[in-house]
């Protein structure tokens, strides 16, 4: 079954632990362990572009059209700053998505938290430009964005808990390396020939 791709700003996982066996060892706690090659840390979730644009159109009572919201958002995505490679650690598995998913809670450097704050500030600026009032309320109520809390917990989703609602688990400390931030599914958006752009010089 085809699914509409969701748009996120994320940092891809380059490695977990000292070798493949360290990641595979999480199978003691997690079933249907995801392939390590596709793991990532989400820095900002926008959801399906059309849904996001529709939420904006409805919130502004049509003052901003779906087409205008979508086009401006794509341009905005291309202008976001890029976060360089970084390393983090994890010592805990936490429940996500109401307990249906297990994730590694990641301790990341302060510059990663600062970058994520910059992304949220940039999102506020985008929404202001698109004539959204009460921006904080919109962010927490938008179905596309899907935020349940303004608090950001760095995490990497790795699979499903062996027992639904099993809570958190302490694990042996795992070092995790992350690559440069990127826009997930950018190539599927309008203007896809540009793809994920090269980072701008700071």
Descriptive keywords:
single chain, 202 residues, alpha+beta, Cyclic Phosphodiesterase, Chain: A, eight-stranded antiparallel beta sheet, 5 helices, disordered C terminus
Would you mind describing this structure in some detail?
The chain is of the alpha+beta class and 202 residues long. The protein has a single domain, classed as Cyclic Phosphodiesterase, Chain: A (Alpha-Beta Complex), CATH 3.90.1140. The protein has helices spanning 20-24, 49-59, 66-78, 110-129, 135-141, and strands at 7-16, 30-31, 40-47, 86-96, 101-107, 155-161, 169-178, 182-184. Strands 1, 2, 3, 4, 5, 6, 7 and 8 form an eight-stranded antiparallel sheet that branches. β4 and β5 form a beta hairpin. It is elongated and about 55 Å long.
CATH architecture: Alpha-Beta Complex
CATH third-level topology: Cyclic Phosphodiesterase, Chain: A
Largest sheet: 8 strands, antiparallel
Q: Please give the oligomerization state of what you see.
A: single chain
CATH class: Alpha Beta
Number of domains: 1
Order of secondary-structure elements: EHEEHHEEHHEEE
**Total helix count?**
5
Beta-strand percentage range = 25-35%
The residue ranges in which pLDDT falls below 50 over 5 or more consecutive positions are: 193-202
* Strands, total number: 8
What's the pLDDT, averaged over the residues? 90
* Broad shape: elongated
Helix-strand category: alpha+beta
Estimated helix fraction: 25-40%
Distance between the termini: 42 Å
